[in-house]
Amino acid sequence: MDVSVKKMVVGGIEIKVLKKPIKNLHISVHPPDGWVRVSAPLYFGEKAIRLAVIKRLSWIKKHQERIRSQARQSQREMVSGESHFFLGKRYILQLKEKRGKQQGVKIRGERMYLNIRPGADRKRRLYVLNEWYRSKLKALLLEMVSKWERKMGVSVREFRIKRMKTRWGSCNPLARRIWLNLELVKKPPHLIEYVLVHEMVHFFEGRHNGNFKALMDKFLPNWRLYRDELNRSQITE
Question: Which CATH class is domain 83-236?
Answer without folding.
Answer: alpha beta
